[in-house]
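#struct-pred
JK: can someone run the complex with fructose -6-phosphate? inputs below
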Amino acid sequence: MFLVFQEPQAIAQYVSERLVNLIKSKPHAVLGLATGSTMEPVYQQFCADAKEQGLDVSQLTSFNLDEYIGLSYEHPQSYHYYMNHYLFDHLSFAKQKTFLPDGLPENVEAHCQQYSQKIADYGGIDLQLLGVGSNGHIGFNEPGTPFNSRTHVVALCENTRIDNGRFFESMDEVPAHAITMGMQDIAEAKQIVFIATGDKKAQVMLDLYESEVDEQMPASMLKDHPNALFIIDKKAAALLPAAACEFID
Ligand code: F6R
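RT: done, structure tokens with the ligand placed:
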């Protein structure tokens, strides 16, 4: 069930290669993108590989999973800023086709509805990258989010705010709300690449392994997905039984 790599850099190389191959075979692909520490080496590796191979990314469309409410796209902790910093500014992405939820929407309900609709209008997501929170969230779909949800506003769990507080000067600055793609939007992606790295993810990997498909463990929804890869490193796999792991050297 879990592909276990020695370290995050090996995962970055493997995932980057998958992305490059997808884009070569489908230059108009629609990517579902995530932010967070887990994705940093993946984007760094992908930028290096894409440059080295002269990969054309200008025809891609991308949809990010989520954005904090209350942060403008220029705020250094916004996910817009992150994406520009780690990915979009390094390659020739067509920025008008790199979509993220707006952290300062005029009409938040309408904005959420339009975001899911736009994903459908572009034909759905070909490959969705996913990280995972220590409580099993994917996107910002916290435990208990219905599996049939579409893009919506979420009140972030206190432990998610604490986990993400490391990026902010103080806890007071960590937004309380976010907009996230819904569980159903994620489930409809044709291919899912789920990544977890580091010892802080070891407990949630055990929880995920032991969980039934259950809305209280959002990532468990992926167990029912026909084309989901669970890619983790040795530290994240530390509590898993060997029988659940395929070790990649
Ligand atoms: C980010 C996202 C979140 C993160 C998760 C893990 O766009 O959707 O689900 O993937 O919180 O974050 P890191 O990678 O920082 O541990």
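RT: quick notes.
The chain has a mean pLDDT of 97.
The pocket of fructose -6-phosphate is lined by residues 34-38, 65-66, 131-133, 137-140 (CB under 6 Å).
JK: thanks, will look after standup
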